[in-house]
Write a structure and sequence with these properties.
Blueprint: E1 2-5, H1 7-20, H2 25-40, H3 51-60, E2 70-75, E3 78-82, H4 88-106, E4 108-116, H5 123-131, E5 135-141, E6 146-147, E7 154-156, E8 161-165, E9 172-176, H6 183-192, E10 201-202, E11 208-209, H7 212-218, H8 227-243, H9 249-255, E12 263-270, H10 278-293, H11 311-321, E13 323-326, H12 327-337
Parallel strand pairs: 3-4
Antiparallel strand pairs: 1-13, 2-3, 4-12, 5-8, 5-12, 6-7, 8-9, 10-11
Length: 347
C-alpha cells in the first residue's frame, strides 16, 4: 500500500539513512535529493525504493561512499574519468555538469566514466544537461539481466538510453530502458499488488505474462521492440565500454557483483544552437511538439503528450500533497535512518 510523505521529510530521512550508511554530508545531500525527486516525479522504482538496496551495496563494499571521479585522460572536448566505485548519483551529477561545461567551451562536450556504480534514474542526468541549456544524452553498459532476442537466458544488460531537449516551454526528455518495463518498475507493480498494463516478459512456461513477479522469477524480461531492444542494448554496451575504456557487461557478469557495480557510462552535451539561432530553434521545437501533442487520442480522457511533459506536473502535485511511497519501503528507510542497517531489500 502506498502512502504520501512530505518531500522535505522524505529527503531529510533518506539523507540521514545515507549518512548512517557511511556517506559524508555533502554526498548524502546530493543523493538524497535525487532519490526524493525521482519518487516525486513518479519514478519510485529508481527513487526511494532503491535506498535500502544502495545501503546494502555500501555494506558489501560494492560502493565506496567516499569515492570521487578522477580525470584519467582528455582529448579536445572529451574527458575520461575513473569513478572509483563512488556513489552513482554524485558521480553522474559531476559528469553531467562537466559535459555541459565542455559543451559551453567547445560546442560539444563528452565525459565518460569507468568503474561507476548505479546512477539510479538515468534521465536525471540528461535532464540536468538540458537545465544547462544543452541537449543531453547519456547511457550505460551494465551486467546481463535481459535475454537477447531468441534466447531464454539473460545475456545482455538492460542498458538505459536517455536524451533531453532544452525546450524553454518545457524540456522534452526520453528516459528508456531497453526492455518493455525496467526491473525496478516490475517491483513497483509487485509491491502494489498489480498486474502490468501490457505483457512485460515470460513466465516459467515460456508464455508472455502480465504478472511482474513471474517475470522477476524467470528474469526473462521482454526487450522493447523485441529484437530491436536487445540489439540496441548490445550496441550501447559496446559504445560505452569503448568510450569509457571500462568494463563491458560480460566483464561485470564474470565479477558477479551487484547492480551496475563497476559499469561504464557516457554523458554527451551538445549546444543546440551550433548552426541556428536560439529563437528559430525554440520555435521549431514548439511547433513540432504542439503538432505531436495535438494528435487524436485513443482515449479522450488521456491526451497525447510528448515524453517528459507529465514529469513536472507530477512533481508539483507531489510537492503540494506529498510524495507517493510504498509504506514498506518507507518503514525500511526510517529504520536505516534510526541506525538499523540490517534491512532486507524488497524493491
Amino acid at each position: 500500500m502506498s502512502i504520501k510523505i512530505d518531500f522535505d521529510m522524505l529527503m531529510s530521512t533518506i539523507k540521514k539513512a545515507l549518512i548512517n550508511a557511511g556517506m559524508d554530508e555533502d554526498k548524502a545531500d546530493i543523493c538524497a535529493r535525487i532519490h526524493a525527486e525521482s519518487s516525486a516525479d513518479g519514478v519510485e522504482s529508481h527513487g526511494a525504493n532503491r535506498v535500502p538496496r544502495f545501503v546494502d551495496y555500501i555494506q558489501r563494499g560494492w560502493v565506496n561512499p567516499h569515492g570521487e571521479p578522477v580525470l584519467v585522460k582528455q582529448r579536445g572536448f572529451a574527458q575520461n574519468y575513473d569513478g572509483n566505485l563512488g556513489p552513482g548519483i554524485s558521480n553522474a551529477v559531476f559528469c553531467a555538469d562537466r559535459a555541459a561545461e565542455l559543451a559551453k567551451e567547445h560546442g560539444i562536450g563528452m565525459v565518460t566514466l569507468k568503474n561507476a556504480t548505479h546512477w539510479m534514474r538515468g534521465g536525471t542526468y540528461a535532464w540536468k544537461m538540458a537545465e544547462h541549456g544543452k541537449i543531453g544524452m547519456c547511457w550505460i553498459a551494465t551486467e546481463s539481466c535481459m535475454p537477447m532476442w531468441g534466447s531464454d537466458e539473460p545475456s545482455i544488460g538492460n542498458n538505459p538510453f536517455c536524451v533531453a531537449v532544452p525546450r524553454e516551454d518545457g524540456e522534452i526528455v526520453l528516459d528508456m530502458a531497453m526492455s518493455q518495463y525496467a526491473f525496478g518498475k516490475l517491483g513497483v507493480y509487485r509491491l502494489a499488488g498489480k498486474n502490468l498494463p501490457y505483457p512485460g516478459g515470460f513466465d516459467e512456461q515460456g508464455n508472455l505474462t502480465y504478472d511482474p513477479g513471474s517475470i522477476e522469477k524467470t528474469k526473462r524480461i521482454l526487450p522493447t521492440g523485441y529484437w530491436k531492444g536487445s540489439s540496441m542494448a548490445l550496441i550501447l554496451d559496446l559504445l560505452a565500454s569503448a568510450l569509457a575504456n571500462g568494463k563491458t557487461g560480460a566483464d561485470l557478469d564474470d565479477e558477479k557483483r551487484g547492480s551496475c557495480t563497476g559499469c561504464s557510462q557516457v554523458f554527451i552535451a551538445i549546444d543546440p544552437y551550433l548552426f541556428g539561432e536560439k529563437e528559430d530553434i525554440q520555435n521549431k521545437w514548439n511547433t513540432r511538439v504542439k503538432r505531436a501533442d495535438s494528435a487524436h487520442p485513443i482515449d479522450p480522457d488521456s491526451p497525447v503528450q510528448s515524453p517528459g511533459e507529465n514529469t513536472m506536473k507530477r512533481r508539483m502535485e507531489s510537492m503540494k500533497n506529498g510524495v507517493k511511497i510504498d509504506e514498506q519501503i518507507w518503514a525500511q528507510i526510517q529504520s536505516i535512518a534510526d541506525g538499523n542497517l540490517d534491512v532486507t531489500d524488497i524493491s
